[in-house]
């Protein structure tokens, strides 16, 4: 890893160095990671996949994401919440996903809890965006050393606690913070990354569902 946490690709784009050279990972970094999301299905997909990622690399999950989407009914919480034992066995035999029984059952449980949360908060988006942290929680500028040293924050710990209180599983503070980074609740592209300002601009144009709700 370069000392400043940045790397310029052969395409001339300066990126967070953790991306590496894989084209799929680059597209994810450039087009998704850190951009604000207000769609409930996408939010549910990401928090479930963050749970599946535990103990693995995100690139492993990313390469299997389309298989996950097919296996989990597009990550529509209402559909996944209705999965039964036959579905668990189907998923355990699906070589295209991560076949971890605990994580599979957790995804179904979390879909059921997501429906409850939609009733409580109006939408998953309204709930999750109510955890957008104060700007001074992550000191500027964002550096590689700061990211490595702080894999969770007070807000991610609070989010994880609130989810666990509502019966969610595989949602610890580190997983919650990775979710916050990916969904644009924080902009952790390293200072100097070409995508950082794009994410900042996208956030400026985005209406927080928590504020709207």
TrEMBL record:
Q: Which UniProt keywords apply?
A: Metal-binding, Zinc
Q: At which positions is Zn(2+) bound?
A: 16, 29, 189, 193
The record's listing under PANTHER family reads:
DNA-3-METHYLADENINE GLYCOSYLASE 1, DNA-3-METHYLADENINE GLYCOSYLASE I
Tell me the protein's name: DNA-3-methyladenine glycosylase I
Top-rank taxon of the source lineage equals Bacteria
Task: Enumerate the Gene Ontology biological process terms.
Answer: base-excision repair
Query: What InterPro entries does the record point to?
Result: Adenine_glyco, DNA-3mA_glycosylase, DNA_glycosylase
One GO molecular function term?
metal ion binding
């Amino acid at each position: 890893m370069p000392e400043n946490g940045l790397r310029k690709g052969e395409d001339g784009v300066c990126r967070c160095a953790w991306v590496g050279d894989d084209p799929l990972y680059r597209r994810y970094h450039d087009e998704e990671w850190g951009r604000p999301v207000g769609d409930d299905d996408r939010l549910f997909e990401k928090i479930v996949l963050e749970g599946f990622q535990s103990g693995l690399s995100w690139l492993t999950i990313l390469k299997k994401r389309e298989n996950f989407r097919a296996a989990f009914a597009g990550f529509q919480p209402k559909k996944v919440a209705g999965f039964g034992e036959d579905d668990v066995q189907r998923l355990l035999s699906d070589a295209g996903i991560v076949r971890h029984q605990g994580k599979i059952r957790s995804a179904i449980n979390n879909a059921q809890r997501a429906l409850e949360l939609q009733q409580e908060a109006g939408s998953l988006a309204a709930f999750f965006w109510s955890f957008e942290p104060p700007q001074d929680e992550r000191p500027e500028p964002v550096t590689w050393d700061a990211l490595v040293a702080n894999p969770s924050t007070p807000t991610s710990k609070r989010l994880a606690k609130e989810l666990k209180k509502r019966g969610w599983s595989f949602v610890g503070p580190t997983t919650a913070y990775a979710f916050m980074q990916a969904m644009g609740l924080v902009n952790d592209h390293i200072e100097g990354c070409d995508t950082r300002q794009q994410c900042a601009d996208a956030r400026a144009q985005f209406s927080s569902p928590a504020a709207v709700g």
